[in-house]
Amino acid sequence: MRSKYFCSLALVLGLFFVSSDGFASNEVQALRRFKEAIYEDPLLVMSNWNDPNSDPCDWTGIYCSPSKDHVIKINISASSIKGFLAPELGQITYLQELILHGNILIGTIPKEIGNLKNLKILDLGNNHLMGPIPAEIGSLSGIMIINLQSNGLTGKLPAELGNLKYLRELHIDRNRLQGSLLVAGASGYQSKVYSSNSSANIAGLCKSLKVADFSYNFFVGNIPKCLENLPRTSFQGNCMQNKDLKHRSSSQCANAQLVKTHGSPSAAPKHQSAQMVAKHHRASKPKWLLALEIVTGSMVGLLLLVALFSAVHRWNNRSTLIIPWKKSSSEKEKFTVYVDSEMLKDVSRLTRQELEVACEDFSNIIGLSADSQIYKGTLKGGSEIAVISLCVKEEDWTGYLELYFQREVADLARLNHENTAKLLGYCKEISPFTRMLVFEYASNGTLYEHLHYGEAALVSWARRMKIVIGIARGLKYLHMELDPPFTISELSSNAIYLTEDFTPKLVDFECWKTILARSEKNLRNISSHGSICVLPNGMESRYLDVSGNIYAFGILLLEIVSGRPPYCKDKGFLIEWVRQKQLSFSKHLKLSYFLLLFFHHLYQKLCYC
């Protein structure tokens, strides 16, 4: 066994150091490490990186120097790749441009990025990166453009940013950054960077910076005077007090200071009252703007009156509490489907505008599929949420889809357990057509990510056991304690989200597939003369899937114990690998039999006792 391990290790190391003639082997190794850290490549943009004998200069997204001995540019943008930023990227020291915009990169920005002394452009915008901006980024002495917008970055701006005297563009909007922007001296300029433990000093940037965007963070204090006249500079959506800008609510700012920082609550900056802010805004507005607001307000008031009278008229002429769902512009549906308007009366309904603000214009995408997108956001009270939005056009939305959507919302609203994600509400609007579900957000990623990628691959056995027990208890609750029982549409390690203390949460993010599948099944049974829809027996439809959840739980146990994913292109299915081990090695038979007995006993003990 040991010799086999060392042979495999030697083979892997050999692949890392294969390179074309004259090409730096450490750069090839760094690229392969980066490829390893990318665990989802749906568009196969990195598929030609797998050939160990190919020239790295021919790989997609790789650009080399004229002599083809160094990598000078990496551009893999808008490719939906999902994974981590490998620290080994810092070994590509001749790199001038690193552009990974518009993907699903997670984890933190490695401090090794600071080793790229020749870097001119760093574009990691529109990803899912978290944690602080590393101070080592201030070592990029020749950097001209930094784009870190639309991530989940936290903490304060590093004072080392003031060292970047050639920086022209800085985009850090739509993150969760905090602190104040202070500039020493009345003139607003300072040659020597002044650093502080509590705030970033950006005086060194003022002479070179041409474009900057600090919007939609949690910055406090005053806007530096040297930045006020920069073109396209935006500070809106922060917690600042001295500008006539669109600010975050006081509750959001207070919660960010109390929850997101590790300091004492008393260290949070004091905010002006809403009345004082409003008074300041009114005093600072020009007369023409006040006149425009008065005219606009009058028009809006008239429209509201018209809408009110129309609503009263429609209400007085209503015929029943059970309303028919009618498609606006399609004649495909020749039958009537009745939807009970009382079905969701106990479930919180949120507006699209509320969710748009919470999710910062729906810019923070944390997951997507053919039929839905998942966004991360923060409600006014500070609660982090995951919003699932159905990708469907209004003309394709049928009465049966509406019926099953409401049924699914009511079904999800029943769940109330430590190991299941809680449904916080839903959104249903006609213009623009919207169907969304709002769940509580578990901030520690999925079980799949922790088992197979990054530093989290070293999950301790104690944590694995805690996760297994939590999943089993969640399934027991769903299968045995609910009437009718509830099942997860696609139970896998990607459907298990973890909290900070590694408590597992079962999340049914694939419920849209259940809705679509059930609707299509019923549509096939409708006669050409049409019929009235009757809700199916929820217990019957769900109970058939309980056995599937139990089987998926067994696969999960094998995945957690073995550390292997359920399926790999080069290794096949995990269950087949287990069967081959049983057939190939007689000494494994007893072990496998013991494991199966253990799994069966564990599930029975935790779920059906």
From TrEMBL:
<dbReference type="GO" id="GO:0005524">
    <property type="term" value="F:ATP binding"/>
</dbReference>
<dbReference type="InterPro" id="IPR001245">
    <property type="entry name" value="Ser-Thr/Tyr_kinase_cat_dom"/>
</dbReference>
<dbReference type="InterPro" id="IPR001611">
    <property type="entry name" value="Leu-rich_rpt"/>
</dbReference>
<keyword id="KW-0732">Signal</keyword>
<protein>
    <submittedName>
        <fullName>Leucine-rich repeat-containing N-terminal plant-type</fullName>
    </submittedName>
</protein>
<feature type="domain" description="Protein kinase">
    <location>
        <begin position="360"/>
        <end position="609"/>
    </location>
</feature>
<keyword id="KW-0677">Repeat</keyword>
<dbReference type="Pfam" id="PF07714">
    <property type="entry name" value="PK_Tyr_Ser-Thr"/>
</dbReference>
<keyword id="KW-0812">Transmembrane</keyword>
<keyword id="KW-0472">Membrane</keyword>
<dbReference type="InterPro" id="IPR000719">
    <property type="entry name" value="Prot_kinase_dom"/>
</dbReference>
<keyword id="KW-0433">Leucine-rich repeat</keyword>
<dbReference type="InterPro" id="IPR013210">
    <property type="entry name" value="LRR_N_plant-typ"/>
</dbReference>
<keyword id="KW-1133">Transmembrane helix</keyword>
<dbReference type="GO" id="GO:0004672">
    <property type="term" value="F:protein kinase activity"/>
</dbReference>
<dbReference type="GO" id="GO:0012505">
    <property type="term" value="C:endomembrane system"/>
</dbReference>
<dbReference type="Pfam" id="PF00560">
    <property type="entry name" value="LRR_1"/>
</dbReference>
<feature type="signal peptide">
    <location>
        <begin position="1"/>
        <end position="22"/>
    </location>
</feature>
<dbReference type="Pfam" id="PF08263">
    <property type="entry name" value="LRRNT_2"/>
</dbReference>
<feature type="transmembrane region" description="Helical">
    <location>
        <begin position="288"/>
        <end position="312"/>
    </location>
</feature>
